[in-house]
């Protein structure tokens, strides 16, 4: 029996000690000579192979899909489905452990976590192999810093002020607790203290606020851990503690704020947005939206759920900003729209501005110019950088009356250039945020009618999927690893996300489907039999895998301050399981691109 088998390597790390013992007792070892096939397409798999030494090329015809190395296993699909779909050929002298198929199937039946490795849908694999991160949950909340959950501002009121004045100042600041300075001591007064003073004790409104404040302030440092604050709150039977940074008080931490961390503050942010009375008041909630993405991810929420929550909160932010900076004429006659990943509801870490404005007629030019500048500047201040292609309200091309935009759409349709096709694609993802939503519906309907029957135009539009290549994981890795160099990086947005998103856009446009989310388009196209339901599920699974991997890369880029790498992942840095999931996802994209090539004869575009 081989004694060197590494059971800590996925998927075997999901097995119990008893199951590991069964597996080790059944192992055998095989030697494969260079160039010798290990598993051939259509061949029945009697064993799961786990590479001990050497490497194995995974090929599909002449295409090299991957290069597997020590610790990697194959062919999981053949084990479950009975036969292999790819060629597995030894790239050099190779040793493999052999795990009997019967035992693998038995372990799959007994152990759901182990079984996930053999699922055909890649998103199911991703869910299972993200289990360790998801188990952090409350533990990650307790390790958060107090400053991540505490709220300000720290309003300071003189002890001689009346309780009526204190109540007014707290209402103006939209807070329920304030600090009270009385000589050399600092106390706290809450909204409940003030209410009891007036309603129960029937104190006059002119009573100095010092008389209803308490001066046994329990404070915690802003850089302390949440669990330290919880200990203080429990020990002193408090629902809130004061927060200080050095000698200065910065706000309060309440039990509801800690609860907010568990849900990423998503239930607290809308209230802060609604209470904003100025653009400056929106800065805090805007930062919270961005901060919650990492918290939700750390707590194991699925990427599509993070995107849904984030998109909803961003839209609330845009609505409030529009209300604050748009003059009455624009609020009455305009429709604010968002595009890109925001429009599709697939935004996670904040990227650039993708927005526009439709009007039901001309408005005063100076007023419109002031709004364009103010709206874009405010978003930039919140951390939304200007769009490199200037797809934003500040560009008159994207903020104009309905009639003008419809004319522009028809011009893009007639131009038949890649740039015009990209502009049509961007607009096709637009959704209304606030204002006269019917304007956008009219514009989209005009666009669909203008493109109806334009098969050549749809084909040119679909050809944008050829803008970037979808690599076979291992083409670059093979060369790099053979000379001892780490695997190259893959741009996950270009290689995986864009082909699926844009391919679905093209098919939806062809069928006149006005659904904006990629998941919604896949569902609608499946209903219209544009492809088989199983392939639709695989495409959605692959998209979610790419979104998850990109989110990881984005969060790492934010932490390191290397935003130019926000879509780059290095296969060599991934776990065996993650590489397997990525390989499957890229295979699905290549199949989808082939479907588009055949349907629209994309080869004719050269």
TrEMBL record:
Q: Which residues cross the membrane?
A: none
Amino-acid biosynthesis is among the record's keywords: no
Alphabetized Pfam families for the sequence: cNMP_binding, DUF294, DUF294_C
- Tell me where on the tree of life, at the top rank, the source sits: Bacteria
Which Gene3D superfamilies does the entry mention? CBS-domain, Jelly Rolls
The residue ranges of the Cyclic nucleotide-binding domain are 11-125
Q: Tell me the keywords, alphabetical order.
A: CBS domain
InterPro entries xref list: CBS_dom, CBS_dom_sf, cNMP-bd_dom, cNMP-bd_dom_sf, Diverse_CBS-Domain, DUF294_put_nucleoTrafse_sb-bd, GlnD_Uridyltrans_N, RmlC-like_jellyroll
User: Record's CDD domains?
Assistant: CAP_ED, NT_GlnE_GlnD_like
What name does this protein carry?
Cyclic nucleotide-binding domain-containing protein
- Source organism per UniProt: Paracraurococcus ruber
């Amino acid at each position: 029996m081989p004694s060197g088998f590494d059971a800590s390597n996925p998927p075997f790390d999901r097995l119990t000690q008893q199951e590991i013992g069964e597996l080790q007792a059944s192992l055998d070892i095989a030697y494969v000579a260079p160039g010798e096939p290990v598993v051939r397409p259509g061949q029945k798999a009697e064993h799961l192979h786990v590479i001990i030494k050497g490497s194995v090329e995974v090929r599909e015809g002449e295409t090299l899909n991957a290069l597997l190395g020590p610790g990697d296993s194959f062919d999981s699909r053949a084990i479950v489905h009975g036969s292999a779909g790819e060629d597995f050929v030894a790239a050099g002298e190779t040793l493999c452990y052999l795990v009997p198929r019967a035992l693998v199937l038995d372990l799959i039946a007994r152990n759901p976590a182990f079984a996930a490795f053999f699922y055909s849908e890649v998103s199911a694999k991703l869910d299972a192999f993200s289990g360790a991160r998801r188990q952090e949950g409350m533990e990650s909340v307790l390790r958060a810093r107090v400053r991540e959950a505490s709220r300000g501002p720290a309003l300071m009121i003189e002890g001689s002020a009346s309780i009526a004045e204190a109540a007014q100042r707290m209402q103006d600041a939209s807070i329920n607790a304030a600090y009270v300075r009385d000589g050399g001591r600092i106390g706290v007064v809450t909204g409940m203290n003030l209410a009891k003073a007036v309603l129960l004790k029937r104190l006059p409104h002119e009573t100095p606020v010092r008389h209803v404040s308490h001066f046994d302030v329990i404070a915690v440092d802003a850089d302390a851990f949440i669990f330290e604050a919880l200990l203080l709150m429990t020990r002193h039977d408090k629902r809130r503690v004061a927060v200080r940074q050095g000698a200065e008080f910065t706000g309060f931490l309440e039990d509801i704020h800690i609860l907010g961390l568990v849900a990423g503050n998503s239930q607290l942010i809308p209230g802060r947005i609604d209470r904003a009375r100025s653009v400056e008041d929106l800065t805090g909630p805007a930062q919270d939206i961005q901060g919650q993405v990492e918290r939700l991810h750390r707590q194991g929420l699925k990427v599509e759920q993070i995107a849904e929550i984030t998109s909803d909160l961003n839209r609330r932010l845009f609505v409030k900003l529009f209300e604050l900076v748009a003059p009455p004429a624009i609020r009455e006659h305009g429709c604010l729209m968002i595009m890109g990943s925001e429009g599709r509801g697939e935004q996670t870490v904040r990227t650039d501005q993708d927005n526009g404005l439709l009007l039901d007629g001309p408005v005063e030019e100076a007023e419109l110019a002031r709004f364009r500048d103010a709206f874009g500047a405010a978003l930039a201040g919140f951390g939304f950088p200007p769009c490199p292609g200037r797809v934003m309200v500040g560009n008159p091309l994207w903020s104009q009356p309905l009639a003008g935009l419809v004319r522009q759409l028809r011009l893009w349709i007639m131009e038949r250039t890649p740039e015009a096709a990209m502009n049509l694609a961007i607009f096709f993802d637009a959704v209304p945020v606030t204002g006269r939503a019917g304007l956008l519906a009219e514009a989209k309907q005009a666009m669909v009618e203008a493109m109806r029957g334009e098969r050549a135009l749809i084909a040119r539009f679909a050809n944008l999927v050829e803008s970037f290549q979808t690599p076979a994981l291992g083409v670059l890795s093979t060369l790099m690893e053979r000379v001892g160099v780490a695997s190259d990086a893959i741009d996950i947005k270009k290689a995986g996300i864009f082909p699926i998103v844009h391919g679905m856009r093209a098919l939806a446009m062809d069928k006149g489907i006005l659904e904006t989310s990629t998941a919604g388009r896949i569902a609608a196209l499946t209903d219209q039999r544009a492809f088989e339901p199983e392939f639709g599920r695989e495409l959605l699974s692959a998209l979610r895998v790419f979104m998850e991997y990109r989110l990881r890369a984005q969060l790492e880029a934010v932490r390191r301050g290397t935003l130019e790498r926000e879509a780059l992942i290095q296969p060599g840095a991934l776990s065996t399981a993650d590489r397997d999931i990525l390989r499957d996802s890229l295979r699905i994209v290549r199949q989808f691109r082939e479907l588009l090539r055949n349907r629209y004869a994309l080869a004719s575009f050269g």
